Each structure stands twice: as C-alpha cells, then as structure tokens.
C-alpha cells in the first residue's frame, strides 16, 4: 500500500471512530481547568508528536490521526464550537465531508510535507 493511501486509510478510520464514539457516548467531554478541550486540540498534539517519533511508521500513524482529529472539527470550531448538538449540525457534518474530500485530493502533497519538512 502506498504511503499516501495508508495515510488516508488511517485518516478516514480515525474520523469514523471519533464520530462513532461521540454518537455512542454523547455529552462526555474533557474539561481541564474549566475549559472544554475539543479533539481538534488533541489533533494538534498528535501532529506535533509525530515530529518527535523515531520510526517512520509511527510518524505516519501519529500524523494521520492528528490531521483527522483536526479535520473532523475544523468547520465545527470555525463556526464557534459548542456542544454535541452543534457538532452534529448539517454545517459541521457537511464541512467534515468537504474537509475529508480535500484531504483525500491533497494526500500526496500532505505526505510530501510530512516526510520532507517534518524530518
């Protein structure tokens, strides 16, 4: 399997699993010091952690999960965040589909960036 296809498979699986988990366990939130932590921010941490991974497969795995977590909530966060009701809104869901399609179309460039710039 090509590296960019593996990236997108992990990406798509992550988006599916995060959506499924929020559907099954609604209203379960991570709150630190009174702030609601969205998985968008956890995606930033995963993507940053991929820079420090020694193994190329670990880098790809962490990076794919991080990008998926960010892409899933990108439109939701741009519209102001909120709770589960807004997360499942038409705008958020369609935005996630569009963002996922853009990631699919740009997957080769994203992997080039990940492999060349984030050594």
Verbal overview:
- The protein is mainly alpha-helical.
- The chain has one domain.
- It is built from six helices and two strands.
- Strands 1-2 form a two-stranded antiparallel ribbon.
- The mean pLDDT is 90.
- The end-to-end distance, rounded to whole angstroms, is 21 Å
Broad structural category: mainly alpha
- Please write the string of helix (H) and strand (E) elements: HEEHHHHH
Alpha carbon gyration radius: 14 Å
Strands of the biggest beta sheet: in what spatial order? Answer: 1-2
Question: What is the approximate shape?
Answer: globular
Number of strands: 2
Helix content: over 70%
Number of H/I helices: 6
Total tally of structural domains: 1
- Biggest beta sheet summary: 2 strands, antiparallel
Overall average pLDDT:
90
Strand content: 5-15%
Q: Uncertain runs with pLDDT below 50, 5 residues or more?
A: none
């Amino acid at each position: 399997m090509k590296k960019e296809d593996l990236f997108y498979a992990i990406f798509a699986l992550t988006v599916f699993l995060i959506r499924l988990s929020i559907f099954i366990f609604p209203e379960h939130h991570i709150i630190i010091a009174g702030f609601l932590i969205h998985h968008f921010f956890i995606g930033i941490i995963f993507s940053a952690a991929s820079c420090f991974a020694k193994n190329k497969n670990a880098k790809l795995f962490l990076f794919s999960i991080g990008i998926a977590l960010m892409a899933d909530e990108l439109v939701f966060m741009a519209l102001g965040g909120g709770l589960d009701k807004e997360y499942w809104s038409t705008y958020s869901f369609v935005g996630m589909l569009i963002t996922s399609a853009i990631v699919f179309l740009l997957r080769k460039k994203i992997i080039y960036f990940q492999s060349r710039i984030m050594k």
